[in-house]
Design the sequence.
């Protein structure tokens, strides 16, 4: 307590030098929090969107299905049992049939994935209710990215060609019933959604599906002949991207922190060099050398406490503002990364505590290193201010 | 000597390494100091005055011989015990005052008491008493940079006296002061010596200081060449 009191007194006495160090450290502190808050916000949003739009609470895959291998699609389909049908009826499971196809918008050719979904499903946020029945053409829904890519609007018709389960080519026109906006590119890019029964008929795969998406009402249980994939597996791509982003960010954060810590280290070295008489006086007044080392260490470490307070002064309003307004991510939206138009940073208590602890411990360590010299100082030389 | 010895120095030798050789700063010193002495170590520069004072204050240790301060042998004390001895029983006054610049007068004087874990009210009373002795109660909130040299040295005296030590070691306390301030300081210390029976030991070559001393020990080349103990006894 005494060391803390003396340290703050000395820090305040050092005036501008203290505040320069504190400013640099607080900047590093705020940047670390901001960046991690942004990544965490993005992570939360992506995970939530992906669960709501694509993965549900988990998926049951046909054993042949591999989401990274398009060649598995043609064999990855099976009949659904009565037990599954009952769950589908209760809207606990959403069946999906997947097939490869080619779309020909305005004479151009695009490889697409056809997804047959139950129009009445409520497991995913997809606006499948728009997949009504039209007399002359089958209705489809697509995402905004897909619409931009194929240059299609609501009401447009587009020719698609596919191969049924026997490998026979067939083609027909479908009409775009709705264009939805979704932040998950894998739901949107290259995907055309049709009614499940329509696609089953087109493929000659009556009652067959590729996967079943579990909703919140689904009670966890295995389904015979279907492989369950949990959200941990299904969201692993997002986790990898976030991890990579965090690793990239930590280099920048580390550099910033190092700059701030070098400033503190430098100040400490200078301080011990300039304040030898003071050190000698402390010892003459009855302090032990470890106590003096303690004062100087706490003094350096206290920079981090002041930096936290200063960071809070401008960081809290800034974070609140960003939390309210969000950070525009429009430029990243057309990439394959699941990202919303705006990211709302998320600052968890854990993140704040970890950042504070990181900054405090680092500042204390770099303060202790030069302060160790005090324990080797001769008090008689220190009192004279002799170079040691 | 008014009382039994509180400092007993026997066959003290202090050597410092100088390159590959050694310099003998103190060579076979034998002296004792009693309670309430107002004594001075005098001699030219390099005679060993400050070194002897440092060893008595347990800021340095002897190379040979024994230095016994208040019943403790300085050479056998651990760092912690030395610190405790200095904190409780020895006050220091330095030529350059050595006040802590960021602290007020009050805080400078209070510092030694903070280590003794006294209560706030006890500290306040002790600090104010101490500042009253040196006539600086009106400067409690001033920082050292706002004080004159004489005032700074009075603060240093108050700081050394606040814990009511048995011994005060003053190294050239008037060297940075003018004549008027020097006399004022010395008179203050003399009064405290009389009132509180504190032993004052000076290291000085200032004639003004010598006028006030009851006992003058002259050092030359690390040896005691004269000790007017009789004068002290007479006074």
Sequence:
């Amino acid at each position: 307590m005494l060391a803390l009191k003396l340290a703050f007194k000395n820090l305040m006495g050092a005036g501008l030098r203290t505040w320069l160090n504190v400013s640099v450290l607080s900047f590093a502190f705020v940047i670390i929090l901001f960046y991690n808050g942004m990544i965490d916000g993005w992570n939360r949003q992506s995970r939530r969107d992906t669960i709501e739009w694509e993965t549900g609470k988990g998926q049951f895959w046909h054993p042949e299905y591999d989401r990274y291998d398009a060649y598995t699609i043609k064999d990855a389909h099976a009949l659904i049992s009565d037990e599954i049908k009952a769950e589908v009826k209760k809207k606990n499971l959403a069946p999906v049939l997947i097939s490869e196809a080619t779309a020909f918008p305005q004479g151009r050719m695009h490889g697409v994935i056809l997804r047959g979904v139950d129009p009445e499903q409520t497991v995913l946020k997809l606006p499948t209710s728009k997949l009504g029945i039209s007399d002359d053409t089958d209705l489809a829904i697509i995402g905004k990215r897909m619409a931009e890519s194929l240059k299609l609007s609501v009401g447009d018709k587009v020719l698609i060609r596919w191969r049924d389960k026997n490998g026979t080519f067939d083609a027909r026109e479908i009409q775009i019933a709705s264009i939805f906006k979704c932040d998950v590119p894998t739901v949107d890019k290259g995907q055309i959604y049709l009614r499940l029964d329509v696609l089953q008929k087109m493929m000659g795969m009556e009652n067959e599906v590729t996967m079943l998406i579990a909703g919140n009402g689904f009670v966890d249980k295995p389904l015979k002949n279907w492989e369950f994939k949990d959200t941990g597996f299904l969201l692993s791509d997002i986790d990898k991207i976030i991890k990579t982003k965090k690793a990239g960010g930590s280099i920048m954060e580390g550099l910033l922190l190092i700059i701030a810590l070098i400033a503190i280290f430098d100040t400490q070295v200078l301080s011990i060099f300039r304040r030898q008489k003071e050190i000698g006086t402390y010892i003459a007044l009855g302090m032990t050398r470890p106590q003096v080392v303690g004062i100087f260490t706490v003094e350096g470490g206290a920079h981090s406490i002041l930096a936290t307070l200063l960071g809070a002064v401008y960081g809290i309003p800034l974070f609140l503002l960003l939390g309210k307004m969000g950070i525009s991510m429009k430029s990243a939206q057309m990439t394959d990364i699941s990202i919303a138009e705006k990211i709302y940073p998320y600052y968890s208590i854990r993140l704040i505590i970890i950042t504070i602890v990181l900054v405090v411990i680092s500042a204390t360590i770099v303060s202790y290193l030069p302060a160790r010299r005090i324990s080797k100082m001769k008090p008689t030389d220190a009192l004279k201010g002799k170079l040691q | 000597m008014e009382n039994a010895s509180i400092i007993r120095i026997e066959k003290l030798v202090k050597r410092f390494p100088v390159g590959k050789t050694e310099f003998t700063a103190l060579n076979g010193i034998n002296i004792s100091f009693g309670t309430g002495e107002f004594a001075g170590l005098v001699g030219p520069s390099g005679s060993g005055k400050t070194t002897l004072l440092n060893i008595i204050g347990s800021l340095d240790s002897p190379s040979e011989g024994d230095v016994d301060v208040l019943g403790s042998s300085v050479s056998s004390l651990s760092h912690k015990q030395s610190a405790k001895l200095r904190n409780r029983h020895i006050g220091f006054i330095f030529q350059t005052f050595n006040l802590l610049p960021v602290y007020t007068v009050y805080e400078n004087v209070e510092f030694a008491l903070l280590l003794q874990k006294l209560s706030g009210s006890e500290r306040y009373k002790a600090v104010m008493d101490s500042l009253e002795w040196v006539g600086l109660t009106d400067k409690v909130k001033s920082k050292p940079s706002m004080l004159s040299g004489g005032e700074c040295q009075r603060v240093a005296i108050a700081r050394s006296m606040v814990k009511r030590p048995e011994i005060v070691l003053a190294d050239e306390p008037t060297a940075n002061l003018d004549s008027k301030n020097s006399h004022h300081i010395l008179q203050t210390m003399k009064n405290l010596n009389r009132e509180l029976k504190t032993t004052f030991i000076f290291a000085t070559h200032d004639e003004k200081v010598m006028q006030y001393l009851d006992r003058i020990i002259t050092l030359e080349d690390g040896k005691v060449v004269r000790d007017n103990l009789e004068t002290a006894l007479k006074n």
About this structure: Chain B has eight helices and ten strands. Strands of chain B lie at 5-18, 21-34, 38-42, 64-69, 72-73, 90-93, 167-171, 199-204, 215-220, 223-227. Chain B has a mean pLDDT of 90.
